[in-house]
Amino acid sequence: MDVATQTALKPRKKPRQARSEATVEAIVQAVIQVLLSDGAPRLTTTRVAERAGVSVGTLYQYFPHKQALLYAALDRHLEGVAVALEAACAQARGRSASTIVEAIVDAYVAAKTADAAGARALYRVAAELGASELVKATGRRIRAAAEAALSSAADLRLENPRRAVATMLAAISGLVRTVFEEDGGAADWRAARAELTILCRGYLDASARDGPRAEAEPAAAIRGKSPARQIGPGDSP
Amino acid sequence: MDVATQTALKPRKKPRQARSEATVEAIVQAVIQVLLSDGAPRLTTTRVAERAGVSVGTLYQYFPHKQALLYAALDRHLEGVAVALEAACAQARGRSASTIVEAIVDAYVAAKTADAAGARALYRVAAELGASELVKATGRRIRAAAEAALSSAADLRLENPRRAVATMLAAISGLVRTVFEEDGGAADWRAARAELTILCRGYLDASARDGPRAEAEPAAAIRGKSPARQIGPGDSP
DNA sequence: ACCTGAACACCGTTCAAGT
DNA sequence: ACCTGAACACCGTTCAAGT
Asked: What digits encode the pLDDT tens for the residues A77-134?
């Protein structure tokens, strides 16, 4: 059911002519506008169509259902975040672990705060759609980029960089989410960035120290398993 | 609008007789059952009433709207988590920072995984309700408990324990959320617990080391502000 | 005090008819 | 190829009438 649902979220048909391409663009823009001006509960297919200057029928020609509209808006946002993270990671390659960590944290926070209103509105949307394939896929991209960058650090050798990156990014997203939920201002974002840098650096230090030798029973139990069983990417449901 | 909305989410009237008390109980149970068996999208006021063995009218006598139903179910879950965390923190008082950290992580994960199906279903519900007062209030309780415990550690003196606790708990909830989203199994939960312990210990080490001296511009800028401007509790919207 | 269920307004989705 | 908008099924919420 899950994969089928996710697939169904994609646009119903590709626009073949310039006219319909503009229509789709207008609809997606309308979704974001209605989301920001009226809020998610008031986001109605009729209202979106009205704002986009088309009829409901047209809307349903390109999107199979209301969720697909939100999905499209979420897609835009996540694409932006992923691209920003990938760029930051590529640029930080080969520098010290400390620098790389800072670059990742900064890029993540910057990407989320650049379109703060949209990001906040979409946090709810993302949850309503469930932990969609889209969110997972974006997570995978970001983790891959971060792992590549961190593995390139000259002054750090992690036993399991994949897991370390998954842990760090989950922690980062947790803090970012909290600041959003608390309606944080610029000062809160600065503080979050500073704390996240300390957090990640401390974690990497500790991992490099404690990681290699099996510390307790659970860690050892997992170490024997295949990569698929890691916290990281969702290789399987 | 926010506070008013949140207030309106509470039950409409207190049950005065034993009969109605049973009715409310039946309705809340029905919400959880429908949520688990039919899923959130199929959760209908009629369906809940039917499952509870009452009419829609009765349902609306105690809950002002559908969201209030979900709110009540979420309330149950969060209450359980908060109580568990408070107990764990109280019990760990006075022990080493390392032990306390472990206790907090373990209690958090245990509370969430004890009712994994319910917790997962409610993660979405919580988002649909927005970052409700309820979620924030529970966060405040947990942070307060954790701060009290950590401040009691003999081997640790943090400059800003409130912020440190807020950071740690946000990171923890981020990792927990990720494991849920990835549909993690028992091995993933064990791995998450281990990583979280390393993460938090490393963070506290680093905080105690780097914290006291102003490291960069942003940290210093915040340090001068009032406690209300911290990442932590949402003292104001 | 508590409960019922038909009635109302509104929303998501479809489809026959148009250009 | 693309668009329209009346029509349908269903859902949240109310309220006059019951016990």
From this structure: 888 888 898 999 899 888 887 788 888 889 988 988 887 777 777 777 776 665 566 7
List chain A residues with pLDDT less than 70: 1-18, 127-133, 210-237
pLDDT at B214: 41
Q: Which residue of A has its CA nearest to B137?
A: A182
Euclidean distance between CA atoms B224 and B50, whole angstroms: 57
The pLDDT value recorded for residue A41 is 84
CATH of A3-207, one of 1.10.357.10, 3.30.70.20, 1.20.140.10, 3.40.30.10: 1.10.357.10
d(CA A58, CA B43): 29
* CB A107, CB A84: distance < 8 Å: yes
CA distance A25 to chain B (A): 26
Which whole-number Å values give the CA distances from A227 to A1, A233, B105, B179, in the listed order?
Answer: 25, 9, 24, 15
- Residue in chain B lying closest to A173 (CA): B174
Running DSSP on this structure, what letter comes out for residue B192? Answer: H
Phi, psi of A175 (to 5 degrees): -70, -40
What residues contact B114, with CB distance under 8 A and at least 6 apart?
Answer: B80
Residue A165 contacts by C-beta under 8 Å, 6 or more apart in sequence? A143, A146, A147, A150, A232
pLDDT tens, residue by residue, B16-72: 566 788 999 999 999 989 998 998 889 999 999 999 999 999 999 999 999 899 988
Q: Are A73 and A125 in contact (CB under 8 A)?
A: yes
Domain-by-domain residue ranges, chain B? 3-207
The reply to whether residue A166 touches residue B179, judged by beta carbons under 8 angstroms, is no
Give the burial string for B200-221 (b: 16+ CB within 10 Å, else e). Answer: bbbbbbbbbebbeeeeeebbee
Q: Is 0.90 surpassed by the pTM of this model? A: no
